[in-house]
Amino acid sequence: MKTATFYQLRKLREEYGPGIFGKITQKLLAMAFYNAGFHHLVERGVQGVDIDVANSAGEKYALEVKTTDGEAVPISKENIDALAARTSDGYIPMIAALRMQMFEDWILADVPLSQLRPGATTLSRLRGYRVGRLEELICPAFEEVVHEHSAAVLSGGERYLIKTLDGKRSGSAGHSGAVPKFR
Fold first, then answer.
1. Of 54, 71, 92, 182, which is the most exposed, with the fewest CB atoms less than 10 Å away?
2. Average pLDDT in the chain
């Protein structure tokens, strides 16, 4: 990620603390997927997978979103079970991990559920399951979303993002043309 994006994210984390920052980052990632053409979007603040996305080409992903300063992210049995539950609807289960370090980007990993175990999962292990073409699409979209919305998030917090996500989802219902980006 670009230096400016890193500093914007760091400012958000300093303002809201790690727990709320994780929720904010999850919502920003959901907006990035939307801007990248995944107009079916379900972002959950509680229970179940964090984000479901699908595009018009039929790609469907269920994502557990993790942020860290370290070399690993925690994966719970509940995370694994939630991802497994979405496979019955045709979603590909993925771990989305962002290490909060300069020049790091999202890791979007298609780890087979049979390979996931509760506990700490290293980023180096996730890198082995990266979906490069998806990262190439989402990482720039994420940077754009952070740039566009970080000031509003600083003043409005997670509530701003919830309202923005809800407005776009309800605004796209039944829409037959191009769906507007999160701007």
1. 71
2. 89
Model pTM?
0.90
Angle formed by the axes of helices 3-35 and 132-172, to 10°?
60
Phi first, then psi: what are they for 124, rounded to 5°? -65, -35
Tokens of residue 87, six digits: 């496979």
For residue 37, what are the CA distances in angstroms to 32, 75, 94, 100, 152?
A: 9, 28, 18, 26, 23
Gap between the Cα atoms of 24 and 9, Å rounded: 10
54: phi then psi, degrees, rounded to nearest 5: -150, 150
Which tokens sit at 166?
């809800």
Q: Are 89 and 77 in contact (CB under 8 A)?
A: no
Rg (Cα) of the chain, in Å, rounded?
15
Confidence of residue 183 (pLDDT cuts 50, 70, 90): low
What is d(CA 42, CA 30) in angstroms, rounded to the nearest whole number? 8
